[in-house]
Automatic annotation (TrEMBL):
Keywords: Phosphoprotein. It comes from Oncorhynchus kisutch (Coho salmon). The keyword Phosphoprotein applies. It comes from the Eukaryota. This is Neurofibromin.
Amino acid sequence: MAAHKPVEWVQAVINRFDEQLPVKTGHQNNHTKYKFSHVISGLTNILKNVNNMRIFGEAAEKNLYLSQLIILDTLEKCLASQSKDCLRLDETMLVKQLLPEICHFIHTYREGHQHAAELRASASGVLFSLSCNNFNAVFSRISTRLQELTVCSEDTVDVHDIELMQYINVDCSKLKRLLQETVLKFKALKKPAQHAVINSLEKAFWNWVENYPDEFTMLYQRPQTDMADAAERLFDLVDSFAESAKRKAAVWPLQIILLILCPEITHIISREVVEESKANKKLFLESLRKALAGQGGSKQLTESAAIACVKLCKASTYINREDHSGIFLLVQSIVVDLKALLFNPTKPFSRGAGSQNADVDLMIDCFVSCFRINPHNNQHFKVCLASASPSTFHFVLVNSLHRIITNSDLDWWPKIDAVYCYSGELRLMFSDTLSRVMQGLHTHAPLRMTPVRKGLHTRAHSHSFSHQSFETPFVFLCKRTS
């Protein structure tokens, strides 16, 4: 239809733009709020109709995917622009229409679908934006499923709605509600549901820290008793759950997060003697240190300890050192062993053939965190820079420096100029890597020439990295350090 009347349609859009200028519309009224709800409802119906289409052939499938992505991205932008004084969307419409469609992509489109990751990421963005102003609707779905699972007798349970925790927008008060709800129901859940809660709560914590860093910083200036109480109670429940080495490995990353939410406890357990109610927290930290040093009796525990300790280091960078928190004493007690484990060129850290991506991400998180803790303690920097080190280490170094340059949100995070003195070595490393790629030498693992969808690509593939993913941050760094 637009093709037959191009001029009229363009003019209609221009007129609409003109009509929506604040000087002509004034303050938002109820009619505008109604129109917002109508837009969301209309987009939801379009998405539902597209999802129900029967398609045949590769071209049709691609068009379906593109259509779904466009609708999801439009929904995310609309929800993200919802003003604070706008009436919340009708709860019935959310629960019965929009949420099920969004959850369809997050839950159903998993492995095996060509565009699963992109659709899930886009749907997650919609859920995040939706939960900003309509948290209760999403929380109700999570809470209802938790309640259902407390009385479920089946061994195989559907935990998809529990996993919604990891995609929603949570500030301090919302995280507190999630913790308190979990405390009430964790013990009655089956093991699969408990595992889902453990994994999802940890991701919810990072959503909070990364989106509301000032709130987390304030937690260490003015501790919240009710937050700490919920976190400690859940720590104790999870601690009882962790009966075997396998379960300990599964819960340690969440347990360190729960301790971080208790500023006073992190200070108390650094003492030689602690009261009985805190003894299990001190024992947990001692077990963590032993496993990190290879004395835990299990490779699985050592790997879990590495993950937990990286999270401790990362969280500590969001706390101002001027607050003199006990968390920095905990970091000092593990950081040497942590770097020795992750940055050992003669025995690179590896959790197995299917974990290269996660291993690289863990090393990058550790590198960036250590730089922010102390930019002048750079032994691991020199290890990654060494020409004899594996190409994985070079990749970690470059992507870590790129993150340091492009993500400097907090005032106390050191700037990249602390490594300007290594600019010559960095350019030399890049030139050497590029030469090996172009000459096809086989003295190191090959670098694969594959396209990258978005700017910085930080995923490793069997220790073979995209030429573009390696080059993009490297060129950026060379320009910055020249």
